[in-house]
Structure formats: structure tokens, C-alpha cells
Design goal:
The protein has one domain. The chain has about 200 residues and is mainly alpha-helical. The protein contains 9 helices and 2 strands. It binds zinc ion (2 copies).
Length: about 200
């Protein structure tokens, strides 16, 4: 579990931006800010899908590291959280900070929140056994299909929405999930890669 907590740098950063927003913007502006947060969370799911499909599975430099995660899912393959978090701030906050500060703050907080949720859900997919019928069980089943059967399907971890939009969704049977019984935290290792 400590392995996971160490990767959630985006949470305190998102909280910092949130506190800043509550101090800087009026209460009426904060209603709009909250909508931008939701938009940022939605944008994250597209970002997550695109990174996984077109970066980790296509670009040789990233694929090398991502393949290692496919082979040994118990080993954490990921960049230091500061890179993923910094990248989000750079691409969402920086371009809009002056022209549209409300949108910049809201979208950034939403993206950072989505990134943290993705990290937690991905961790659960490999190290927990959620109850059948729950959202997390479906996420784990989708991801098991991607890992053990059809790696050109189910690129989304947080949601199947973009897989359905782009035609890469594939339903799975329980046998896929049974192939990877969760391991204890002792088996977790850390391998650094450029993956946010
Ligand atoms: Zn993959
Ligand atoms: Zn995985």
C-alpha cells in the first residue's frame, strides 16, 4: 500500500490548487470552477486512453517499459510521480493560466484528480479482489482481458467509455481475472520508466 501512496503526489498538488481557488475566486465563480473540475476529470479519461493506446503500445521507447508491466504486472512500472503531475500542470495549467485562470485551475485539479483515481484503480486491478458486480470488479476484469488475452483492446482503466467510442472494447469472462490472483505487497517492486 505504501508503494501506492508514494505515487499519489497529484493529490496534495490538487488540494493546493483547490485551496488557492477557494481563496482567489468568488463563491459564484466557484460553481463554474466545479464544472471545470468535472470537465478535467473527463478529459483525463481520454488522456489515459490515448497515452495507453498510442504511446505505451506504439512508441518503441515507451513500449519497452510497458511490455515489462504486461509481463510482470506485480512490478510497478511508472515514472516518478513528479513527472506525471508536472506534465499535467504543464499542459493544462500553463497555457490558460493568464487568459482563463478559472478554467485553468478547474481543469488542472480535475486532471490531477483523475490521474490519482487512475493510479488507485490500476493498483486495485492488480492487487485486490473487488466484489463481483461492482465498478472495481468490472475495471479489473477489463484490465485482465487487456493483460492476458487481447492487448489491442480495453486500453481504458478508469472507464470503458473511450474503448466503446473507438471500437476497442472487449468484454471478458471470469477466467481472465482468475489468471491473475492478486499478490501481496511484498511482491511489488519498482521500475522507473517515462510512463506518467
Ligand atoms: Zn497495455
Ligand atoms: Zn496493468
Amino acid at each position: 500500500m505504501w508503494q501506492l501512496f508514494r505515487r499519489l503526489l497529484s493529490v496534495p498538488v490538487a488540494l493546493g490548487f483547490s485551496v488557492h481557488a477557494f481563496v482567489r475566486f468568488s463563491w459564484s465563480d466557484l460553481a463554474g470552477w466545479a464544472l471545470y473540475v468535472l470537465a478535467g476529470m473527463g478529459l483525463w479519461t481520454l488522456f489515459e486512453y490515448a497515452m495507453h493506446r498510442w504511446l505505451y503500445h506504439r512508441i518503441v521507447f515507451f513500449k519497452r517499459y510497458h511490455d515489462a508491466h504486461h509481463v510482470t504486472p506485480d512490478v510497478y512500472i511508472g515514472a516518478p510521480p513528479i513527472i506525471g503531475t508536472g506534465l499535467i500542470v504543464l499542459v493544462t495549467m500553463a497555457p490558460l493560466a493568464v487568459a482563463a485562470p478559472l478554467a485553468a485551475s478547474g481543469v488542472t485539479v480535475g486532471m490531477l484528480g483523475g490521474y490519482a483515481a487512475y493510479m488507485i484503480i490500476h493498483h486495485i486491478c492488480h492487487f485486490s479482489t473487488p466484489a463481483r458486480g461492482t465498478y472495481l470488479y468490472r475495471a479489473r476484469l477489463r484490465h485482465a482481458v487487456h493483460h492476458y488475452s487481447h492487448d489491442e483492446h480495453n486500453f481504458g482503466v478508469s472507464t470503458a467509455f473511450w474503448d466503446r467510442v473507438f471500437g476497442t472494447h472487449r468484454a471478458g469472462q471470469r477466467r481472465f481475472i482468475d489468471r491473475h490472483a492478486p499478490s501481496g505487497p511484498s511482491s511489488q517492486g519498482t521500475v522507473s520508466s517515462p510512463q506518467p
